[in-house]
Amino acid sequence: MKTTAKEAKARILRHQRIGADSFRLRLRCPEIARLAQPGQFIMLRVSEQSDPFLRRPFSFSRVFPPGGKMKRTEEDGILEICYKVVGRGTSLMTKLQEGQQLHVLGPLGNGFWAAQGRKQAILIGGGIGIAPLIPWAEKLQRGRAQDRTFRNLNEPSAVVVLIGGESRDKILGVKEFKKLDLEPQISTEDGSLGVPGMATDLLERELMTRGHVSVALYACGPMPMLAKVAQIADQFDLPCQVLLEARMACGMGACLGCAVKVREEDSLKNSQHAPPDAAEERILCTSAFAGGETGASSESFVQDVSQPPAFRYARACKEGPVFESREIIWE
Amino acid sequence: MKSADRPKGGSSLAIELGALKLRNPVIAASGTFGYGEEYASIIPLQSLGGIVTKGLSLEPRKGNPPPRLAETPAGMLNAIGLENVGLEKFIQEKWPFLRKASCPVIVNIFGNTIEEYAELARRLADVEGIAGLEVNISCPNLKAGGAIFASEPRTVQKVVDKIRRATSSFLMVKLSPNVADIGKIALAAEEGGADAVSLINTLIGMAIDIKKRIPLLGNITGGLSGPAIKPVGLRMVWQVVQTVHIPVVGMGGIVTAEDALEYLIAGATAVQVGSAHFINPLAGLKIIEGIQSYLEANDFPNVTSLVGSLKTKRDTGQPV
Question: What is the predicted ipTM?
Fold first, then answer.
């Protein structure tokens, strides 16, 4: 998954409001689109001025690589990102005009990886956090037909999408998932759309009613949601990847600003769900998963709660932004 | 010679910091450029005047709890907490890459005690290819109740003297702006045996989330960098240049070639570019190009002739 980041200029092809406080930017940037993987991100310079000073990190919500299979001239070498207005930088972004050029650096970080041997993927997105799960769903859906890596996802409903948000106007991505022949389940906190409650309620219900044999979880959203997803993953003994948000300065692993508290490698060694950082290790994972075991009794996740785990700070930009949920020390 | 007659790239950018010769005066600042390898895919490292590596201590350090960054007007606060891999791992895992970078590499060091500084200097003296050391004195002296080394001239002289005795490497002392009189500190560094001083380190600051009434940084306070601090850095460089006889390396808020030129005119022999890398990884290269163009457009045969060329009314005897 190691790719070489490029510093490039991207032209804004489309800039649309997609929700109450959310927008989508479609950028033409073949250099980065060529390499971009779901879960990876770009650092985008919001202004040509020195204020606001820092670039902003955004995960891809769609990638159309140049010369890709779905080649349509207007979608060639294109990236999309979605953003929610949360502060000064994103407020300024709402004023960006189609045709304008932006400085972008990417693709950065490590994206999602296929949890080997798992027959079902459940994607859980909260609010704007659904965005990076769209290209991942696309990859899983296409991959099921074409790619050996995803061959285990062979059941008709192998990819399940759960979307949560505060209210109807904050539910994003439904149309995109439908285009991928996926029927997302929706929850809203105020009950204005779908099931009243949280995306994690949907997840628990899904795992209880449909069973959880050979399920892998992929999640992105607010920290409390991710912590809950991680807890559910532990409870059902499921591999779970979370895409974390962090304040970043460089995006390149140099400034050490985007620290995430993770367990020391030694304490992770026994975890069969630890992320692979080399192809060989991925193959090892496959054999460990092949049986599609159910065991919530698996010893590997039993953690000694009597003393705090040995920890270190990982760089979200370089070692993440996608982490195996058990790596993270949720506080 | 008129600039039109001069071949392209005619004005020499080469500078000397004591015995250390650099191909141009633009150095990547410590803490913003990792161990070089992080940026190597974007920037040809050999085009930079030099690289200063992330602050190194004898033992590895985990650093501060997040959040470690906060954006502020025209700048940023950081409270990384001097996280680093430690000397052993630096030599084993980081140095082999840096050594091949075809770019002078200055290793930034810090310690909890004077002895630790000396020990680092001694052990790095055995590592072949290191261009020099930059000493971060903006950290607490554990044996002196945690007072910052940088704040007391006598302590500064003592620590620099100890390091000087431990190594014959090029020695640059990085000064903190959070002191009463930076000129006195710079002089103490020179008297201790420093070959150069670099300044300024970050200014201590803080920022608050008023909705939650919590500090924006996990460490509560942090170091301010970026364009917001440039006037302070420039003033301090100018002040130190009047005081010491060793070369001064200026930094603080340099984003463009114009910023770098201000520092050079104020008397800095070279500059360091730090946080600017975050908004533009190619900032260093742009600055080098910009300095070159300025020198040629203004008929300076070399960058050295620009250094310290500030004209003030004081020089002409007129009232300031």
Answer: 0.91
Q: B69 and A248 in contact by Cβ < 8 A?
A: yes
Low-confidence winner among A304-308, B45-49, B57-61, B268-272 (lowest mean pLDDT): A304-308
Verify whether the Cβ–Cβ distance B69 to A5 is below 8 Å: no
- Round to whole Å and give the CA distance between A166 and A162: 14
Does domain A6-108 match CATH 3.40.50.1220? no
Angle of helix B182-192 relative to helix B153-166, nearest 10 degrees? 30
DSSP secondary structure letter of residue A32: H
Residues A129, A164: Cα–Cα separation, whole Å: 9
CA atoms of B264 and B303, how far apart (whole Å): 8
> What span, in angstroms and rounded, lies between the C-alpha atoms of B123 and A210?
61
CATH of B15-305, one of 3.40.30.10, 3.20.20.70, 3.40.50.300, 3.40.50.720: 3.20.20.70
Whole-structure pTM value: 0.89
User: Which residues on chain B are in Cβ contact (under 8 Å) with A52?
Assistant: 71
Our CA-based measurement puts residue A194 at a distance from the nearest CA of chain B, in whole angstroms, of: 31
Q: Determine whether B103 is an active site residue.
A: no
Chain A residues at the B interface, defined by Cβ less than 8 Å, are: 4-7, 45, 50-55, 88-89, 103, 105, 246-250, 252-261, 311-313, 318
Coil, helix or strand for B246?
Answer: coil
pLDDT in tens, B43-86: 999 999 999 999 999 999 999 999 999 999 999 999 999 999 99
